[in-house]
Specification:
Layout: H1 2-49, E1 74-75, E2 84-90, H2 94-106, E3 113-119, H3 126-131, E4 133-134, E5 136-140, H4 146-157, E6 162-166, E7 170-172, H5 176-186, E8 190-198, E9 204-206, E10 209-211, E11 217-219, E12 235-236, E13 244-248, H6 249-254, H7 268-278, E14 282-293, H8 310-321, H9 323-326, H10 339-343, E15 349-355, H11 365-379, E16 382-388, H12 396-403, E17 407-408, H13 417-424, E18 430-434, H14 436-449, E19 454-458, H15 463-474, H16 477-496, E20 499-502, H17 505-514, E21 520-522, E22 542-545, H18 551-569, E23 576-579, H19 585-588, E24 595-599, H20 605-610, E25 613-616, H21 626-633, E26 638-640, E27 657-658, H22 662-674, H23 676-693, H24 696-706
Parallel strand pairs: 1-4, 2-3, 2-6, 3-5, 8-14, 15-16, 15-18, 16-17, 18-19, 19-20, 20-21, 22-23, 22-25, 23-24, 25-26, 26-27
Antiparallel strand pairs: 6-13, 7-14, 8-9, 8-13, 10-11, 12-14
Helix pairs in contact: 1-14, 11-24, 13-14, 14-16, 15-16, 18-22, 21-23
Length: about 700
């Protein structure tokens, strides 16, 4: 019976996807016309194809081999003021040392570094070869100190802000060092950051290590595909292999370096990670930093003889030292099936978010809201998995999610949502279904495989309300029918889910009438507060910001330029900057006589800081308008329509200026453009508004009330 139910649900899922595509195409034809619909389909197909899943390494290196060839002469880049000091302990195996140093030379990026090679009494050609390589600092121990002693000796010579320990049996890849530095910049509580280690044949060696309460360990992801989403997001790890780890140099010294009780080697890296946490910092695995590791070259793999035997001896020392901390670690596992749960045990709860596509926060307000909500979920201790309906890897946008600690799911690793849910559904505490046309397809799958999860329907905005208003303003019977179908779909999802999210009290009040008894909570837009950074007199021009994939933005700019702008230009020479991705020809053709159409702009700050007024001339729409929030967060005053400030807790005249006719809109702009006192009032009050209602603090409080205790 279970197999039959699974089959029926998954067939129904596919049928719903087909039906939904048909409905959305019909609605698009009504709103955008044939040409606009073809363009929209092309955009969605491009997103579905996505970017190629990044290959973790460009060149698969062959293992270096010993040779009697003449010594090589080359130079490694170095800096008199390095940011990073790279410490490489070596003992014989000169061919590996040379390969490691050459990779540093060939794949050096923008980060300033120095290389300190500590020769622990090698008996091969290591001393002579090091003398032939420029740009390195070579130290030869007077006596054999072992791995730990050599690392500590090298760190004592370091001058960089960071000290990075790198095995000599490694080869680095492009961007590896920049990724480690970025992790420290983005994670303020980072104490130690380790690289992704891969075998020379391209298989994964370690995506951070797991330590169990009995002191044993597990190389997470060993022998798997390094591009698998499970190993491609930044996350806390119990430890990272000392083959490639980085710390702030002062912090490393404060910890006392590697503990000499583990001399000559083994468990020193695990011990260091536990010391980092004991000092109040975190250990991070950074997947963007990829290092090829010829494992076991120096110490072998036999734990019964040679230096490798200290792996067994030192485990007992480690157990004794960290007895209390180890009680908090997960129990040992006997197969890889349970490794993901053990690797992520610090995240007490797990949430799956399903949306139509990967957020692009620099392109639309909905994406910015979703990205910032994910930030808050991570802050609140949730392990987040994100599934875009198109299953596409979206290049830098997917990588940005992964840098936030999100397990971004994409094909070919996740080609079947049902299969993923069948495996992971029982672990889910919360499932967020974003937008009605996504929710209606996935609802039954989630109910089948994630029975204990709280089901949350995120409307993003009430789509049916926006469509009703569009139908009214255009007098379209077809759009009215589309709006009615959308309303039925959204209300059905609200009835089926445990909780519905809207972005304003206005929409919550509306649903109290239209869907009485449905649990509804407000979770609005979330914005950083930048503050006003340039005075009135230093600014000029007005600006509109909005994605033109969203039809109300197209209508708004066309209406403004055709109806309002001529009235404005008749009295003052004020330029309009139009910013937004996906501008159709109708918008591009407006770029004449004071209208500058910029298209997509990566950094809005120069316009938010340089323009005098932001405009939001929306005639249709629903929800809370990110363009208004964003301008206010920069202290940039706004002139808007009533629709544009709906549900935003604003006071017309003191927080924003509101106008709905062309003459009134032009008059409001001219008044504000010339009145510095009024401008300063709106700037200050706008910042208060965003801080009170649309800040991270406001959203954090709302999330705590919404999520399971």
């Amino acid at each position: 019976m279970r197999k039959l139910r699974d089959t029926r649900t998954r067939i129904a899922f596919q049928l719903k996807r087909v039906r939904s595509a048909g409905i959305r195409t019909r609605g698009s034809l009504a709103r955008r016309g044939l040409l606009g619909t073809f363009r929209r389909i092309g955009d969605e197909l491009a997103r579905k194809r996505g970017a190629p899943v990044p290959a973790p390494i460009v060149d698969t290196p062959a293992a270096p081999t010993a040779t009697d060839a003449p010594l090589e002469t080359f130079a490694v880049p170095t800096s008199a003021r390095p940011l990073v000091s790279i410490v490489i302990p070596v003992y014989n195996k000169v061919e590996y040392t040379v390969a490691c140093l050459r990779s540093l030379a060939e794949r050096a990026g923008a980060t300033a570094f120095e290389v300190i090679v500590v020769d622990d009494g090698s008996s091969d050609a290591t001393p002579a070869q090091l003398a032939q390589i420029d740009g390195i600092r070579a130290l030869r121990n007077e006596r054999n100190l072992g791995f730990i002693g050599s690392c500590n000796a090298g760190a004592a010579m370091a001058s960089g802000e960071y000290v990075l320990f790198l095995n000599n049996d490694t080869v680095v890849t492009r961007g590896w060092l920049e990724a480690l530095v970025a992790c420290f910049a983005e994670e303020t509580d980072a104490g130690l950051v380790g690289a992704k280690l891969v075998y020379p044949d391209g298989r994964l060696q370690e995506a951070g290590g797991i330590v169990f309460r009995d002191g044993s360990g597990w190389n997470y992801g060993r022998f798997d595909n390094p591009g698998d989403p499970r190993y491609e997001f930044r996350r806390e790890a119990d430890y990272c292999s000392g083959a490639a780890i980085m710390l702030r140099r002062e912090f490393f010294n404060e910890l006392g370096g590697f503990d000499s009780r583990y001399a000559p080697a083994y468990y020193e890296d695990t011990d260091l990670a536990f010391a980092v946490r004991a000092a109040g910092k975190k250990v991070f695995y950074e997947p963007r930093s990829v290092v090829v590791h010829f494992e076991g070259v120096t110490s072998g793999t036999d734990v019964g003889s040679g230096i490798k035997q200290y792996q067994v001896v030192n485990r007992e020392k480690f157990l004794d030292k960290w007895k209390a901390a180890l009680t908090l670690q997960p129990a040992p596992i006997d197969n890889a099936k349970h490794a993901a749960a053990a690797a992520n045990f610090r995240d007490a709860r797990r949430v799956l978010i399903i949306d139509s596509y990967t957020p692009r926060p620099d392109q639309d307000s909905g994406s910015l809201r979703m990205t910032n909500l994910i930030r808050l979920l991570r802050e609140l201790g949730y392990r987040v998995s994100f599934l875009p309906e198109n299953h596409a890897h979206d290049g830098r946008y997917t990588e940005a999610l992964q840098a936030l600690g999100v397990e971004a799911l994409y094909h070919p690793f996740v080609a079947d949502a049902g299969a993923w849910l069948r495996t992971n559904g029982p672990e889910l505490d919360v499932v967020v279904l974003s937008r009605h046309y996504v929710a209606e397809k996935y609802l039954d799958l989630v109910y089948l495989y994630a029975r204990r999860a709280k089901m949350i329907f995120d409307t993003v905005d009430l789509h049916y309300l926006r469509e009703q208003r569009t139908a009214q303003i255009e007098g379209s019977a077809e759009l009215a029918r589309q709006a009615a179908a959308t309303r039925a779909s959204e209300l059905r999802m609200m009835d089926e889910c445990d909780l519905t999210l809207v972005v304003s009290e206005t929409e919550k009040t509306l649903l109290a009438r239209e869907a009485p008894g449905v649990p509804v909570a407000v979770l609005s837009n979330v914005h950083e507060i930048y503050g006003c950074r340039r005075e009135f007199a230093a600014r000029e021009g007005i600006v509109f910001v909005g994605s033109f994939q969203h039809p109300p933005n197209v209508d708004a700019v066309l209406w403004f330029v055709r109806e309002v702008f001529p009235l404005l230009r008749a009295q003052a020479k004020i330029d309009l900057h139009v910013i937004g991705a996906g501008a159709p020809d109708s918008i591009a053709k407006l770029a004449v006589d004071g209208v500058i159409v910029h298209g997509y702009v990566a950094d809005l700050a120069p316009f938010m800081d340089g323009c005098r007024i932001s405009i939001a001339p929306l005639r249709v729409g629903a929800g809370v308008k990110g363009k208004v929030n964003m301008a206010m967060s920069y202290g940039l005053p706004v002139v808007a329509t009533t629709t544009a400030v709906e549900g935003m807790h604003v006071n017309a005249g003191s927080d924003v200026l509101v106008a709905d006719t062309p003459a009134d809109f032009a008059a409001a702009i001219l008044r504000l453009y010339a009145d510095e006192t009024l401008w300063n009032t709106l700037s200050a009050n706008g910042l208060v508004n965003v801080s009170s209602h649309f800040s991270f603090d406001a959203a954090r409080a709302a999330l705590r009330a919404i999520l399971p205790a």
